[in-house]
Specification:
Helix content is about 75%, strand content about 5%. By secondary structure, the protein is mostly helical.
Length: about 140
């Protein structure tokens, strides 16, 4: 990789974006695991006549996908501005993607699928913003 450099003692130093990239990849993977659990649970509930809930899918994927960001925040000193930036990114991306999804698929607008899709897309973005802010604060 272009960001990796040998420091002379045999250890490879990683660039500042590697932390952000690793956190986003782990977040997306855990979101997919959460959606897989939701899918299995939905199939089992469907046998009993219960319809799927999009909000539950977003909640389950968000709880699993948000774990790496929580661990990163707990590892260092508290940086409240990083949390504010991450929450603002979460809200902004959620609303923008929800508006785009509701515009693209108007039939799903009443079921709340747009806000769930926006939330699922926004979780890795807010994790990246948090990692970038925390990494920048640690460097400064």
């Amino acid at each position: 990789m272009a960001d990796e450099e040998d420091s002379g003692n045999g250890s490879i130093q990683r660039g500042p974006w590697d932390l952000v990239w690793d956190l986003v990849v782990e977040t997306v993977f855990l979101e997919l695991v959460g959606l897989a659990f939701f899918g299995v649970g939905t199939l089992l509930a469907w046998l009993f006549g219960w319809p799927p809930e999009f909000g539950l899918a977003a909640l389950l994927a968000g709880m699993l996908g948000g774990r790496p960001a929580v661990d990163l925040y707990r590892a260092g000193p508290p940086r409240r501005l990083a949390i504010v930036a991450a929450v603002l990114a979460l809200a902004t991306v959620t609303l923008l993607v929800a508006a785009a999804a509701n515009w693209a698929f108007p039939a799903l607008a009443d079921s709340g699928a747009g806000i769930s899709i926006g939330f699922l897309v926004a979780i890795p973005v807010s994790a990246a913003v948090l990692a970038w802010c925390l990494n920048r604060a640690n460097v400064a």
